[in-house]
Fold this protein.
Amino acid sequence: MRITLHNTEIFASTGGRDFDSTGNVVIFIHGSGQSHLGFMLQHRFFANRGWQCITPDMPGHGLSKGTAIKTVEAMADWYADFMQATGITEATLVGHSMGGLIELELASRYPHLVSKAAFISTALAIPVNDALVDLASTKESAAIAAMMDWGHGSSGHIHEHTMPGTSHMFYGKRLMASNTQGALHAGLAACNAYTNGPTAAAAITCPTLTIVCGQDRMTPRKAGLALNRALDGQLVEIPHSGHMSTTEQPFDVNKALRAFF
Amino acid sequence: MADYKFDTLSLHAGQSPDARFGSRAVPIHQTTSYVFDSTEHAAALFNMEVGGHIYSRLTNPTVAVLEQRLAALDGGVAAIATASGMSALFVTVLALCSAGDHIVSSSQMYGANINLFEHTLKRYGIETTFVPPNDPTAISQAIRPNTKMVFGEVIGNPGMDIMDVPAVAKITEAAGIPLVVDATFNTPWMIKPIELGANVVIHSLTKWMGGHGIALGGAVIDGGNFDWGQNDKFPTLTTPHFGYQGAILWEEFGPAALSVRIRTEGMMNVGPCMSPQNAFYILQGLETLGLRMEKHMSNTASMLDFLVNHEQISWVKHPSLSNHPDHEAAMRLMPKGQGSIIACGIKGGRDAGRAFIEGVQLASHLANVGDAKTLVIHPGSTTHSHLSADAMASAGLTDDLIRISVGLEDIKDLKDDFKQSLRTASKVAAAKGTAA
């Protein structure tokens, strides 16, 4: 699906199915430097099981035009506008990494739009090493390589993949490299600057699920557990996954989401 | 955890020890098909909602380990293993080209590649313009509005002409078409074309990658670095696929769109799949690729020194030699070694050449390259014999050309074998009065 939002052409994957905004809508919110492809093994799965899945690429990411949004708060406002533009009045949110921070803001400031919220490999705050933020600006390919290294667990590093013949590491690198120059830096800087997580989490009243991964070096397990305590919701732990859990351990992620939905 | 290096990936990529039995070696899943958990599971697999296996023409667990190892070694987003290198090239063309399309191809390459483009594809309405691989200007000028790919061997067979991959990649990027290269003669140990701008890599795994000469195989490595949506040249990837509920592969699978198309069309509808047994054999070879390539290179350097200084040899061609026309590009692109194929001419022409080939005792006279054992052949009467005289000349093939694939034997034994056979050749040449 392609729509125009804020005078910018936006692409949104609907998992290969027609989208009905009046149905049981699930919005997947991607992380920094990512796109709808990070949820490739979720939105097709759920779209073919009756959910109305929609995964927009934020401006400057994936197949969307435009330039990246600079703050988590503004990103949450953008998703609220996206919902209005596509006729979605209420949805279940699924956010990964920075997508989880956006989800905290969206669910706390627009509670009428959110029925449930699932948080995958994320935290109340995602401080980013200043050197990595700078690297994303000065040598983006090196920043991407570092993030792929830190972002994957053991199966990712050994290039296993549930989709036969596919390499986690190189697929991830190419996905991130295909974004508009500067999108990664904007996302990392936005993560670094975001401090409202505890306040936002305390304001969320809808049911929540937190998925925490044992080999996550970007939003470590203890940070995920802290988020879950703040949300006081359901918790699922996936021991053998790194940060990129939606592609690294899709069966476990989908099983947890399906039970939660 | 770490970002594993080449030799580690050669041994481990694509496989964790078997979870059920702890098998350290890659298990051979000698099966055609796979039991579904439920009808829902079956539907999910057919619709590519989840990963897994349906039928071994499409995917197989043993073959998948090989594919993931190959993708890891070459820096690709995905790989598809095929029955041979030729079928790897064919399914790639099938995914990108249709009747009315055009290909720009190297003129200096393996005879079957040339025949595929010149004769077979032409019957299906796909035309090819052949140009020298080491002439970027000629490549640029041959590109038409309906050109869908530029193809060439990184190291040409058998003349070892070098394609300057970064230079050609700039041309194809500007033209909005992919650069597809055959990297059989270099392997990812010598050069990784995707890192230099190539978009798709083809391998005959039968050669150095396997190294043992016991299993045929090929592979397509999808670089994932081409924007298929930048123009309207690639409708197979940017418009609804006839399978999979009309999925638009570029939107659904992004960087892996080409490999998904190849698997869901080339492998599904044509079926040149690799057997799991062959995948296992090739995996055994890959485990020692780095070690073998080092020895191939050192033996080649010694053999070159021997041949260049031998009185019975009239000329020697190898990219490492300063008189090779692509010497500069070879040394720049492949500093670890410039390949283990040597072309040379034996004084005395065809008869002396035949005597040499029939006289070697350690080296084997056969139609293959990249084996651990040293191989020799006369291309003019074998691998390239089906080419026309013009095509032979265009490919740089002369009547006296002998192709040597330098193996891993002790180099002294190899030199001794060549010495005794060259003595025989010199006697034949002397008897015919053609030694000079």
